Amino acid sequence: MSEFVTDNPEIQSETDDPPRPRALRKPRRHGGALGSWWQRINIPGGVGVAVWFVIVGVPLYFLFVSSGRESADYLANGPFSPPTNLSFDNFTTILESDFPLYFLNTFIVTVACVLIVQVLALPAAYAIVRSGKKSVARVFSFVLLGLAVPAQAVIVPLYLLITQVHLYDTLWAIILPTAAFALPLAILVLTSSLRDVPKELYEAINLDGAGSVRALFSLVLPLSRSALATIGIYTAMQAWNGFLFPLVLTQDVSVRVIQLGLWDFQGQYGLNVPVIMAAVALSLLPLLVVYLVGRRYLLAGLTAGSGK
Amino acid sequence: MSSETQTSSQAGRPGFIWAVPAVLFFGAFAVLPMVAVVYLSFTTYGGLEAPVWAGLDNWKRLTTDPLVVNSLWLSAMLTLLSWLVQTAIALPLGVYLASKGRMRSLLAAFFFVPLLMSGAAIALLWSTLYDPNFGLASIIGPLIGVEDGNFIGNPKLAFYSVLLVIAWQFIPFHTLLYQGAARAVPVSLYEAATIDGAGRFKQFTAITLPQLRDTIVTSSVLMLVGSLAYFEIILILTGGGPGAATRILPLHMYITGFRGFDMGYASVLAVILLVLGTALSLVITKVTGFRKMASQREGL
Amino acid sequence: MFRSRQEKSGSRSQRARRVIPATLAVLAVGALAACGGASSSTDSGAATPGGGDNGGSGAELQLWTLQNEGINGVQQAAVDRFNESSDAQISLSTYVNDPYKTKLQTSIGSANAPDIFYNWGGGNLKAYVDAGRVADLTDALDAAPDIKSKFIPSVLDVATIDGKVYGVPMQAVQPVSFFYNKDVMADAGITEFPATWTELLSVVDQLKAAGVQPIALAGSQGWTELMYLEYILDRVGGPEKFEAIRLNEEGAWKDPAVVKSMEMVQELVDHGAFGSNYAAVSYDNNGSQALLTSGKAAMELMGSWEVTSLNDSFPDFLAAGTLGWADFPVIEGGAGDPGNIVGNPSNFYSVTSDSDDVEAATQFLLTQMASDEYVDALISVGQVPAITGLGERVKVGQFADFNAYAYNLVLDSPTFTQSWDQALAPDLAQTMLLNIQQVFNKQMTPQEFADAMDAAA
């Protein structure tokens, strides 16, 4: 386990280093002949990975094979026998149910949350990094504390709050708390990103006579694009996979999101495992697309706030 | 605007007002409920009518509720064991995957997939697998001494069954962290050690681990703080059962509040959760200097 | 599903520049949609009462009920019949069980309250009555004695609180009885369903010897196990024992009959009657039904809805005539009348006191719920209505024999005890369900159960 990465561009691309000026790049690293020799004889490592491969692979195999089977086949022949008839019927069943509605709801929630978080977090991060006032520095501590609070602890008062303002059973009931809980990390990521910007750039634009508003749009916004994308993805994942807030704050089918819908399918389709597995597979789809299209951003979003 | 004196270097700097929208929003939907939950713990509230002041009644119930100690114990055990199991697997795995090689990159991409699944999706998948009569459990169970495939219905095994699923959910994430960090370790260190005659294991403990220290801290912090909130998986897999064998604190609170409609007492449990979460974070932050690390972290 | 590796194209900042405007456009659309999606309601949503946007001169009333494929059609037909000749218009919305209870709880005091709502009577309804949310139907019923007399009195009693009637039965009587797989029983050499407790235990042993799980039990949910306790306590100590518990009398839970009942439960468990992995089997995903229909188990104690449910999920099983049913065995030396039954006497519709048109809502209940069309329609989907004097009328349709059985079971029973988790207050019910599970799992002794329930009550 002592071999390490080379300047192999494929592997390099999986890190989340920003491209840096040549002078600041770390020294070249070699795997070389030494690396591959270690690679060949790492048996305990290989065994461990093989075991983990089975643990990860078997459920996933089950997931995808089952979604293509018929229920009678599943019950009769057991979960792991090769399917006798592959069919897409299960997927059609799911698509003809309320699933597309859940999909749309989840999409709306996700988009709204991302918008809210980006719009609120950026000015706040800018203020934290640049204002130099103590009151604002306290905001940062306040926000950090927010990272530690488990959402379950506040669902009872949230429930009270949401019902009092008559938002129970609406999409807003999901959007607002989800965005609120995603804010701390978003602010954290943005402040780090903005702190990276050399002071001189800020000062330069101020010397040009720009007020803070113009600075925001012409300097801060362009510079934080990738961080914004990162927190966008992070928030999107929180919203897409969110379960607790929808569970507690909504009931109606018209505002149901995918995660709740999956649970509901289990009640509706009972032991028709293939159909349920088809629903699970379908719920994966969007993130899979994101992964294929923008893996770096997905990775960055997932590990947001974690540092190297 | 603020009343602090504006010096010439203040010109063009954003004021406090820039942070206000975020603060207000976060305050309304996260902080206000935190304060409210403390208030609610002193009331009787059933979701039907407005909360009614009840003094210390709910708090006194803490002493007579046989499930509280059980929940706290389970939560603590889950946190600790999750941390052990997940770190023990994610760390070596991440290091292994960090090295070059087409095979390893493919594996890394494959191991990434569970990350794409939501908690609910994972829980549904595994509850199907754990079905004692028709699922994987009915096949594997007899092979490992559990004749009737009863994993999630057995009070002794349910906890570990749940632990496994949670690990399955989160190990990919931590593997990613360690993978990224391991890449950053300069190979020259290993080359030097090899020349000195150090074996692979010695190199791992003497070089890799210290270099990964920061990441271990970050990963552990995330695990420990996050573990207080494991909820969906357990709700969907076992509902807290069998009996109360997997009824961790958040679940106890949820069932009390939203099935038993006793939201006053549920608020008491919520306050405990809140206090524990905050205390844990504060302690960890102090001990590890995480905050300093976070604010000095390089941008992405 | 293994994704291929995509080469990145262009530099990072170029990609960022492409992503951002796209994101913003999507976000803008999404925001607009979110505003729209949140405020407008779709077909199955609940519009606020009194909306009247269908142009009618009357109020628009909301009726909330549980989702059930077989019954919802019948309910909708009744609503349609009413709407034809009424100014006020009713619209029906359906919900799944557990979430429905929460939803009702939150909405009933608010502007989003329904006008007519489905409930279980008993303690469930009492909570709303005590909060002043439910309209009193007593006078309306007394003014229509011929309608009132159509409802089975013992069922109407469950919606009668402090002498006043707050709900009208709208669904089947749902007694709990044993269901069994005729083939499995025959294969094990059992010719008659056990009539006494001793016979039951011996049948259990016989089935085990034949390599079959005697009884299918969805033990991951407490209410399926509750049914055993309900019957055993009734047989052993008579219905007064639970009545005392329901009225929260001192020491009611610690009555020796309660402890004895739990001991008998554990006797069944120790005999291996439920197999060993019942705690992992769920009713919601038809786990116990799958055991029964696949021949892996022989019997199941369940409410009468099981017949329609089996028909939905395992139609071949019913069509082949493999399903049998029988009364819960008599317990020798017990104080309870062997004819007593437990279950859901029925489900009810009640009217919210804040409704825009209490009068119209009440009229709907009175004219439709006992009407011939409604009653016959219920029977045709396998539901035995809580209506007196049906006689042979129930013996029609797919489930003719079962209908007749269930109906007579209810008519002949001296008492019909409501499911405890509906009769008791919700938080006590939750604790009870948990403790029952623990007794079944041998995590708690019968005496500990009695003590724990006494402390919680």
Annotated CATH architecture of the largest domain in chain C = 3-Layer(aba) Sandwich
Rounded mean pLDDT score of chain C: 83
CATH class of the largest domain in chain C: Alpha Beta
What is the CATH homologous superfamily assignment of the largest domain in chain A? MetI-like
CATH topology of the largest domain in chain C: D-Maltodextrin-Binding Protein, domain 2
CATH class of the largest domain in chain A: Mainly Alpha
CATH topology of the largest domain in chain A: MetI-like fold
CATH superfamily of the largest domain in chain C: Periplasmic binding protein-like II
- The number of distinct structural domains of chain A comes to 2
What is the CATH architecture term of the largest domain in chain A?
Answer: Orthogonal Bundle
* Fraction of residues in β-strands of chain C: 5-15%
Count every beta strand of chain C, where a strand is a DSSP E run of 2 or more residues: 13
Question: Percent range for helical residues of chain A?
Answer: over 70%
User: Strand portion of chain A, in percent?
Assistant: under 5%
Task: Describe it.
By secondary structure, chain A is mainly α. Helices cover 70% and strands 0% of the residues of chain A. Chain A has 2 domains: 9-94, no CATH class; 97-302, MetI-like (MetI-like fold, Orthogonal Bundle), CATH 1.10.3720.10. Chain A has 16 helices and no strands. In chain A, α3 (43-66) packs across α15 and α12 (225-241) crosses α16. Chain A is globular, with a radius of gyration of 24 Å. Chain A starts with 8 loop residues before the first helix and ends in a 6-residue tail after the last helix. Chain B is mostly helical. Chain B folds into 2 domains: 1-40, no CATH class; 57-296, MetI-like (MetI-like fold), CATH 1.10.3720. Chain B is built from 14 helices and 2 strands, in the order αββααααααααααααα. Chain B has helices at residues 20-40, 57-64, 66-98, 102-111, 119-129, 136-143, 158-183, 187-195, 200-211, 213-227, 232-237, 249-258, 263-288, 290-296, and strands spanning 43-44, 52-53. In chain B, strands 1-2 form a two-stranded antiparallel sheet. In chain B, α3 runs parallel beside α7. Chain B is globular and about 75 Å long. The two termini of chain B are 32 Å apart. Chain C is α/β, with parallel strands linked by helices. Chain C has 2 domains: 60-173 and 345-388, 3-Layer(aba) Sandwich (D-Maltodextrin-Binding Protein, domain 2); 175-343 and 417-456, D-Maltodextrin-Binding Protein, domain 2. Chain C contains 21 helices and 13 strands. Chain C has helices at 12-39, 69-84, 97-107, 122-130, 138-142, 145-148, 153-158, 182-187, 197-209, 222-237, 239-246, 256-270, 287-293, 305-313, 315-319, 358-369, 372-380, 400-412, 420-423, 426-440, 446-456; strands at residues 60-66, 89-95, 116-119, 160-161, 164-165, 168-169, 174-181, 213-215, 297-303, 323-326, 341-344, 348-351, 416-418. In chain C, strands 7, 8, 9, 10, 11 and 13 form a 6-stranded mixed β-sheet that branches. A 5-stranded mixed β-sheet of chain C has the order 2-1-3-12-6. In chain C, a hairpin with a 2-residue loop joins β4 (160-161) and β5. In chain C, α2 (69-84) packs antiparallel against α17 (372-380), α12 packs across α21 (446-456) and α20 runs antiparallel to α21. Chains A and C meet through α6, α9, α12, α14 and α15 of A and α1, α3 and α13 of C.
